[in-house]
Prior knowledge:
Number of helices: 6
Order of helices and strands: HHHHHH
Shape: elongated
Structural class: mainly alpha
Helix content: over 70%
Largest sheet: none
Amino acid sequence: MRWIGAIILLVGMTAIGFEWARRLSQRSKxxxxxxxxxxxxxxxxxxxxxxxxxxANRISSTVSSPLSQFFKDFxxxxxEGNHDVQSAxxxxxxxxxxxxxxxxxxxxxxxxxxxxxxxxxxxxxxKYIQLTLTHLRAEEINAREExxxxxxxxxxxxxxGGLLAIIVMI
Length: 170
């Protein structure tokens, strides 16, 4: 019976370590995908003169989940007409943020960007998009460095933590 418990503990702790490592790798991937989505957003607004509802729906079909759900929610809130652009953006972030692997710095950059949506002309909006992209690219570099530094350690710590718990229990 003890061995079954020990194996379950070891598998559980190893799974926690692998989940931590997966979140580290997902963070840089999601930031990269978000920068691509914002570049698409910029092109649609600047050159296509596309309404934000249509931009959000197009972007939601080009990015993967959970970012696709964020843009889909943003588009739906705009379509409902009960929200202004800033509150729709903010609420979409609030609802979908926990599903992402991104951290608070990326969230703050997106919230600041959302405060400028619909407030300015196209060229000023382009400057805010570029500023947000600059912040996200810097965070992507940090995320990749963090991934390189901690990914293997997270996997090892999960397994070794499980072994340590088993040894302490025995």
